[in-house]
């Protein structure tokens, strides 16, 4: 599977403020059969793609983080209010934390997984437009690039469903 690196092409690299300095975040989205298997990815220096066993299919994204940005996406895809999304027990659930929080493995919600797996390519392209206009993209989101991201995440979700796996994100700041 090819990787998508979102950054300079469509909009500025997103940043989070950490200890009064701006730091870019790298997000590797992948599927795993259990939280424990996913958590082990936190200990692999090069991330889930480099894991020897079982090895993971990965969608690499720079700066599209799994809590607020994908929470907003979930709200758009499912029609559920963002506040309802954030009450899901898997929303923002860190299954692994390493190096004082500089490396995390975070679970994605089952509802987002299901919505991504069920959405057609045209539905994902449509939702990319309002998603690109959310404040988390600072008015710089490019719908066509975000649509490609969503299509890749949809493929990952469908394959995970077929293998009875869940979705996760390894975050490095």
Note down, in words, how this protein is organized.
- 35% of the residues lie in helices and 21% in strands.
- The radius of gyration is 15 Å and the shape is globular.
- The chain starts with 14 loop residues before the first strand and ends with a strand.
- It is of the alpha+beta class.
- Strand 5 (94-98) and strand 6 form a beta hairpin.
- The strands form two sheets. A five-stranded antiparallel sheet has the order 4-3-7-6-5.
- The chain has six helices and seven strands.
- The longest helix has 20 residues, at 143-162.
- Helix 2 (68-78) crosses helix 5.
- It has a single domain (15-172), classed as Hypothetical protein yfbM fold (3-Layer(aba) Sandwich).
Strand order, largest beta sheet? 4-3-7-6-5
> What fold name stands as the CATH topology?
Hypothetical protein yfbM fold
- Taken in chain order, the helices and strands follow as EEEHEHHEEHHHE
**Residue windows where pLDDT falls under 50 for at least 5 positions:** 1-23
CATH class: Alpha Beta
Named at the architecture level, the CATH assignment is 3-Layer(aba) Sandwich
Number of helices: 6
Structurally, how many domains make up the residues?
A: 1
Total DSSP E strands: 7
Query: How much is the radius of gyration in Å?
Result: 15 Å
* Category by helix and strand content: alpha+beta
Distance between the termini: 24 Å
Quick one: overall form? globular
């Amino acid at each position: 599977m090819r990787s998508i690196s979102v950054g300079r092409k469509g909009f500025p690299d997103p940043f989070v403020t950490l200890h009064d300095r701006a730091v870019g975040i790298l997000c590797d989205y992948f599927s795993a059969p259990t939280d424990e298997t996913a958590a082990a990815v936190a200990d692999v220096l090069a991330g889930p793609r480099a894991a020897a066993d079982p090895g993971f299919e990965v969608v690499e994204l720079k700066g599209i983080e799994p809590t607020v940005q994908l929470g907003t996406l979930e709200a758009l895809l499912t029609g559920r209010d963002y506040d309802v999304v954030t009450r899901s027990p898997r929303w923002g659930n860190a299954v692994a934390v390493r190096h004082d929080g500089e490396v995390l493995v975070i679970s994605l919600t089952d509802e987002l997984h299901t919505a991504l797996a069920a959405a057609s390519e045209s539905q994902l392209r449509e939702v990319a437009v309002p998603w690109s206009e959310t404040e988390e993209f600072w008015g710089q989101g490019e719908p066509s690039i975000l649509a490609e991201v969503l299509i890749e995440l949809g493929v990952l979700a469908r394959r995970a469903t077929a293998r009875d796996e869940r979705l996760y994100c390894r975050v490095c700041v």
